[in-house]
Each structure stands twice: as structure tokens, then as C-alpha cells.
Amino acid sequence: MAQIGLFYGTDTGNTERTAKRIKELLEGKLGAGSVEMHEIYKKKSDDMAKYNLLVLGMPTWYDGELQGDWEEFIKEMEQIDFSGKKVAFFGLGDQYGYASYFCDALQVFGEIVEKNKGTLVGFWSVEGYEHDFSKAQRGDKFIGLALDVDNQDDLTEPRIQKWVEQIYGEFGL
């Protein structure tokens, strides 16, 4: 079985491209087949529960709206016992067009993981971002990697590379 379960939801393909890049970088360190990637569409709680290391990726739409497939997965996710599991989040958003809702979706699912006794890893500095507010922000950190491929695409690849190094260590690999 793969060591890491990577789950994502996407409408435009940006989150999927990001998930593929994260998988590629992690497998470069751990070997082929070490990361199993799943689109969240029509998944069940058992699909996610079998992993102790998880990477979850989701966009935030408009005024803090969840991507549709993730919204449908909330009830499934609430059933998972995350005890002993480490979970890293990455999210995509628009920090200029929706400056008061930047990557809010991360917090919705982060709360579920914490409520169900999971450990969040991969907190990411807010330095270099120009948003007004984010529910996913705790002090000077986001609860996961926040990306804005529309307005800061030149920073996307270096941020992903640095974050993957970070979660690799925080996963204890």
C-alpha cells in the first residue's frame, strides 16, 4: 500500500495539476507508488481512512464557497477517526478578487480533522501574500499551503517545492 493518500477536488484543473506536482515531488523522495492520488469525487470515508499520512487539496471559490465534490464529502469526512493520522492541506484561491475569503476551505476541513483527533502538519507562512482575511489563517500561518495561481503563479512552483520538503519532514519520512 502507498504510504501517502493524496486527495483533491478540482473544477478548472488547477488543483489537479498541483496535486500531480506534489505527488511527483514526494515520489522523487520516497519512490514510485508511494503516493496514491484520488479525486474526491464519489469517494467514501473508508477510501481516506486507510491512510495514516494524508495530503488534501481543495480550491476555495468566490466568497468562501467549497468546491462541490469536497462539499459533498463533508459527511463522509466527519465519520473518519483521524487519531494517529497526520494531515497536510494545500489550497488554491484568489487573494485579490476574494481577498476576504482566501483559501477559507482549508479551515472547514482542518476543523474536522482536529475535531476527530488528527494532527495538522504543513502550516505555511502568510508572508508574501496580499489577502485581507482567511479563515485558514492562524496568527502568521495558514493551516496549509496557500496558492494563488492566477495572481502569483511565478511563486507557485517554489512554494510547492519548499512545502513538500517541509511536510516530508513533518510526516517523519
How would you describe the overall organization of this protein?
With 173 residues, the chain is α/β, with parallel strands linked by helices. It has a single domain (4-170), classed as 3-Layer(aba) Sandwich (Rossmann fold). Helices cover 35% and strands 24% of the residues. The chain has helices at 14-30, 45-49, 68-77, 105-115, 153-170, and strands at residues 4-8, 35-39, 53-61, 65-66, 86-92, 119-121, 124-125, 137-138, 141-142, 144-147. Strands 1, 2, 3, 4, 5, 6 and 10 form a 7-stranded mixed β-sheet that branches. Helix 1 crosses helix 5 (153-170). It is globular. The mean pLDDT is 95.
CATH superfamily: Flavodoxin domain
Largest sheet: 7 strands, mixed
* Number of helical regions: 5
**Radius of gyration, rounded?**
15 Å
Q: Report how far the terminal alpha carbons are from each other.
A: 16 Å
Q: What characteristics describe this protein?
A:
173 residues; Rossmann fold; seven-stranded mixed beta sheet; three-stranded antiparallel beta sheet; 5 helices; 10 strands
Describe, in short, the structure shown.
By secondary structure, the protein is of the alpha/beta class. It is 35% helix and 24% strand.
Summarize the SSE layout with pairings:
Layout (H helix, E strand, L loop, with lengths): L3 E5 L5 H17 L4 E5 L5 H5 L3 E9 L3 E2 L1 H10 L8 E7 L12 H11 L3 E3 L2 E2 L11 E2 L2 E2 L1 E4 L5 H18 L3
Parallel strand pairs: 1-2, 1-3, 3-5, 5-6, 5-10
Antiparallel strand pairs: 3-4, 7-9, 8-9
Helix pairs in contact: 1-5
